[in-house]
From TrEMBL:
<dbReference type="InterPro" id="IPR015942">
    <property type="entry name" value="Asp/Glu/hydantoin_racemase"/>
</dbReference>
<dbReference type="InterPro" id="IPR001920">
    <property type="entry name" value="Asp/Glu_race"/>
</dbReference>
<dbReference type="Pfam" id="PF01177">
    <property type="entry name" value="Asp_Glu_race"/>
</dbReference>
<protein>
    <submittedName>
        <fullName>Racemase</fullName>
    </submittedName>
</protein>
<comment type="similarity">
    <text>Belongs to the aspartate/glutamate racemases family.</text>
</comment>
<dbReference type="GO" id="GO:0047661">
    <property type="term" value="F:amino-acid racemase activity"/>
</dbReference>
<keyword id="KW-0413">Isomerase</keyword>
<dbReference type="InterPro" id="IPR004380">
    <property type="entry name" value="Asp_race"/>
</dbReference>
Length: 236
């Protein structure tokens, strides 16, 4: 009997570049897992990132939560049986999104923390948008799993954030920016980070394991792996 896949709902567009990575990885890893011509059962709802970004900058997180919850409801109506919020930053409103639907949301922070712990690490550096690095919604989720989370100093955080929004979200990948990230990672390692969480889905377009002296944790891939495992599970 063929493995039955639950339909995965992708709430994306934040940015579409990283959502394309979600779609690619979801299908590649499903084929690796199941073989042959197998691909993922999924539906995608892609938002206009400019609208979402305005709510971030203006601090209108309640509006952002409503917007994403409505999009999640559309995915559920389209047949999704579990949900992926394809962005680290917007997990700030993950609880609102989950409350708006009757299907489980696979939380990116949980998938990431579990991967770090499996490597035997207790301290990890966090790279992401300024919202992700500076606010507590993401760091606290990781800390629930027993992780100590280190973030870069203010100047480094500003550089990391700028490169995400001014370059990576626009599909621009620059070697100079890769070098900046390498230097930021180096300083996190000097501060005690045993690994580095690439806590923004776009960062994986720029940084890989080769750019770090310690293990890196690509949150997009980890999120997709967790979703596939959940999709194929017969126990929940």
């Amino acid at each position: 009997m063929e493995n039955r896949q639950r339909v995965i709902g992708l709430l994306g567009g934040m940015s579409w570049e990283s959502s394309a990575e979600y779609y690619r990885l979801l299908n590649e890893l499903t084929k690796e897992r199941l073989g042959g011509l197998r691909s993922a059962h999924c539906v995608l709802r892609s938002l206009d990132f400019a609208e979402v970004e305005r709510t971030q900058v203006e601090g209108r997180w309640d509006d952002a939560g409503r917007l994403l919850a409505e999009a999640a409801q559309a995915l559920e109506k389209a047949g999704a049986e579990l949900l992926l919020l394809c962005t680290n930053t917007m997990h700030k409103v993950a609880d609102v999104v989950q409350a708006g639907v009757g299907i489980p949301l696979v939380h990116l922070g949980d998938a990431t923390a579990e991967a770090v712990i499996r490597r035997g690490l207790t301290t990890a550096g966090l790279l992401g948008t300024g919202f992700t690095m500076e606010q507590d919604f993401y760091r606290d989720r990781l800390a629930r799993h027993g992780l100590e989370v280190l973030v870069p100093p203010a100047e480094d955080r500003a550089q990391v954030h700028r490169i995400i929004y001014d370059e990576l979200c626009l599909g621009v990948v620059r070697e100079e920016s890769r070098q900046i990230y390498r230097e930021v990672i180096g300083r996190l390692v000097e501060a005690g980070a045993g690994g580095v969480i690439l806590g923004c889905t776009e960062i994986e377009l720029l940084v890989s394991a080769e750019d770090s002296p310690v293990p890196v944790f690509p949150t997009t891939r980890l999120h997709v792996e967790a979703a596939i495992a959940r999709s194929l599970s017969t126990t929940d």
